[in-house]
């Protein structure tokens, strides 16, 4: 009997709680008639901890955080390099399709860099721009034409003598082979000559097609020369306007840097062409004089060939020197060929160690490794023309990239907050006591670029 009132009291309390909850539901239903009644679930105040025997489960990191930092950097750089390589490849394919126009324009740039200082001097003397441009262009083209005519004339004038001496040299080689310890017989020599004649006779069609292809090459060469002449004329007259129009194609944010890099790159190209012409003339004159005193036929045409091949760095000097030594060997014998080789090597050593550093100076500083790789790449991609333009292109890019790097660094320093506090005196660019501050001139960035240009170029 004593437990009955307690049980009844608990039941009453539960009924009272249920009544309160029903009243709350009715109040919510009256407030929002469209609401759907959701049964309430009693949620405990806290979640009980797992038992001690349960294994610990670590939280999984984000996928990006799970990749090592070095691998993420390599991946980010890789896809950008692939995109850049694809763009360069597409540009190369476009240039290959219009190879004649591209080489004509590059040649006009080289000739313009050579003739532009003359136009500037004539305009400084008071001549109008059109008259100065016309005089310089006509004089330059006439000189180039005379050089080409002189080479052809010398070759045609000495062709018969050279042919006779070559035949005599072949006959001397035949006698030497017959009397040599190699035991070569006259019958074997005749068989070799017969095989060569048969090979030439059976390949008449290929030789004819090669001749027709040579005619096509001559036509393309003349077309390229005309394009280069017209391009040179317009670049000499309106080069500044052409450069200003080119700057409009550059995004506005990069335009100030390109506007500063362009003139410096042009000065580098001008210094390269002028220095190469001077060095080539010195090589041609001294090697030509050596061949002349050694009584080698066609010494003057060989000197002109040495002058032209000097525009192909490293490789051109080797080829032209070897050609001169071969002519001396065939015509005058081993002793004269050895003397010609000594003359060629002596002049080239003086050129490489004295003339080029003194004439080109620091305006065109290209590492020999960059020269070899650029000449090889240019020759593989575009033959002799690619080998000629490879080194000046590398020199111009080196100057432009060095200036843009210094320009961006200078802009970053300007945008950075100035020093303050106790360390301001230690890092602020203030002159020493008793000295006058020297403001940076307009060529400070250029000098810094020339002095601190890193890389192999």
TrEMBL record:
Residues 417-429 have a biased composition (Low complexity). Residues 445-457 have a biased composition (Basic and acidic residues). The keyword Transferase does not apply. Residues 417-457 are annotated as: Disordered. It is a multi-pass membrane protein. Residues 430-442 have a biased composition (Pro residues). The keyword Ribosomal protein does not apply. The chain crosses the membrane at residues 131-156, 217-237, 271-293, 299-319, 326-350, 370-397. Keywords: Cell membrane, Membrane, Transmembrane, Transmembrane helix, Transport. It is found in: Cell membrane. InterPro entries: AI-2E-like (IPR002549). PANTHER family: PERMEASE PERM-RELATED (PTHR21716:SF53), TRANSMEMBRANE PROTEIN (PTHR21716). Belongs to the autoinducer-2 exporter (AI-2E) (TC 2.A.86) family. This is AI-2E family transporter. It comes from Streptomyces cremeus.
């Amino acid at each position: 009997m004593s437990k009955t009132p307690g049980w009844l009291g608990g039941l009453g309390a539960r009924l009272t709680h249920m009544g309160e909850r029903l009243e709350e539901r009715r109040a919510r239903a009256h407030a929002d008639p469209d609401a759907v009644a959701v049964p309430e679930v009693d949620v405990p105040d806290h979640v009980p901890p797992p038992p001690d025997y349960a294994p610990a489960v670590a939280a999984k990191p984000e996928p990006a955080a799970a990749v090592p930092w070095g691998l993420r950097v390599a991946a980010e750089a890789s896809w950008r390099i692939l995109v850049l390589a694809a763009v360069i490849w597409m540009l190369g394919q476009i240039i290959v399709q219009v190879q004649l126009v591209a080489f004509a324009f590059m040649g006009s740039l080289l000739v313009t860099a050579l003739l532009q200082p003359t136009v500037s001097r004539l305009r400084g003397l008071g001549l109008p721009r059109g008259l100065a441009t016309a005089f310089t262009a006509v004089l330059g083209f006439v000189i180039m034409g005379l050089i080409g005519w002189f080479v052809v004339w010398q070759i045609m004038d000495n062709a018969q003598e050279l042919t006779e001496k070559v035949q005599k040299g072949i006959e001397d080689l035949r006698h030497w082979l017959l009397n040599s310890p190699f035991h070569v017989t006259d019958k074997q020599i005749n068989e070799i000559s017969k095989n060569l004649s048969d090979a030439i006779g059976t390949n008449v069609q290929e030789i004819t097609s090669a001749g027709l292809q040579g005619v096509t090459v001559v036509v393309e060469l003349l077309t390229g020369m005309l394009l280069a002449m017209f391009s040179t004329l317009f670049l000499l007259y309106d080069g500044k306007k052409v450069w200003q129009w080119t700057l409009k194609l550059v995004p506005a944010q990069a335009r100030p840097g390109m506007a500063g890099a362009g003139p410096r790159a042009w000065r580098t190209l001008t210094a390269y062409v002028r220095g190469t012409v001077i060095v080539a003339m010195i090589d041609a004159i001294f090697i030509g004089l050596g061949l002349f005193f050694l009584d080698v036929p066609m010494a003057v045409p060989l000197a002109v060939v040495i002058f032209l091949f000097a525009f192909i760095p490293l490789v051109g000097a080797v080829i032209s020197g070897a050609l001169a030594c071969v002519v001396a060997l065939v015509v005058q014998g081993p002793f004269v060929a050895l003397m010609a080789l000594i003359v060629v090597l002596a002049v080239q050593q003086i050129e490489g160690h004295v003339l080029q550093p003194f004439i080109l100076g620091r305006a065109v500083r290209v590492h020999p490794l960059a020269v070899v790789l650029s000449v090889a790449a240019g020759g593989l991609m575009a033959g002799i023309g690619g080998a000629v333009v490879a080194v000046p292109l590398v020199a111009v890019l080196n100057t432009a990239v060095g200036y843009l790097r210094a320009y961006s660094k200078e802009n970053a320093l300007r945008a950075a907050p100035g020093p303050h506090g106790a360390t301001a005196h230690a890092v602020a660019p203030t002159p020493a006591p008793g000295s006058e501050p020297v403001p940076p001139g307009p060529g400070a960035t250029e000098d810094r670029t020339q002095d601190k240009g890193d890389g192999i170029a």
